[in-house]
């Protein structure tokens, strides 16, 4: 698996939705999020925890609209990942 730092770049297109005034995520945002979601599904536990911690850290440190972040899984058809500052990454 590629390093998460590289993979987190896949979420850059989500910035307009998560941090600005866009009402919905664009196609590039959902495509990137779906790639990370699939990598999470196919990874073993340490990599899953690293992905989770990266997303959790982003939610805690960046000016992300958490209400929009909570909608991202449904809007982009994500199964495994979320951007939540309170997620328990040990599970």
Counting helices, strands and paired strands, the structural category is mainly alpha
Amount of helix: 55-70%
Provide the β-strand percentage band.
under 5%
Mean pLDDT: 90
How far apart lie the N and C ends?
20 Å
State the low-pLDDT regions, or none.
none
Tally of DSSP helical segments: 5
Rg on CA atoms, Å: 12 Å
The domain tally reads: 1
The biggest beta sheet is recorded as:
none
Order of helices and strands: HHHHH
Number of strands: 0
Query: What overall form do the CA principal axes indicate?
Result: globular
Family: Belongs to the plant LTP family.
Keywords: Lipid-binding, Transport
Protein name: Bifunctional inhibitor/plant lipid transfer protein/seed storage helical domain-containing protein
Organism: Solanum verrucosum
Condensed summary:
The chain has 91 residues and is mainly alpha-helical. Helix content is 58%, strand content 0%.
What distinguishing features does this structure have?
Bifunc_inhib/LTP/seed_store; lipid binding; Bifunctional inhibitor/plant lipid transfer protein/seed storage helical domain-containing protein; Bifun_inhib/LTP/seed_sf
What does this molecule look like?
This protein has 91 residues and is mostly helical. The protein has one domain. It contains five helices and no strands. The chain has helices spanning 4-8, 15-19, 27-42, 45-61, 66-75. The mean pLDDT is 90.
Please render the helix and strand layout as text:
Layout: H1 4-8, H2 15-19, H3 27-42, H4 45-61, H5 66-75
């Amino acid at each position: 698996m590629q390093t998460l730092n590289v993979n987190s770049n896949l979420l850059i297109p989500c910035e307009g939705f998560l941090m600005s005034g866009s009402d919905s995520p664009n196609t590039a945002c959902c495509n990137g999020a779906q790639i990370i979601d699939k990598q999470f599904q196919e990874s073993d536990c340490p990599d899953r925890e690293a992905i989770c911690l990266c997303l959790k850290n982003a939610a805690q440190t960046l000016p992300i609209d958490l209400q929009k972040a909570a909608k991202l899984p449904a809007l982009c058809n994500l199964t495994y990942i979320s951007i939540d500052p309170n997620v328990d990454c040990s599970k």
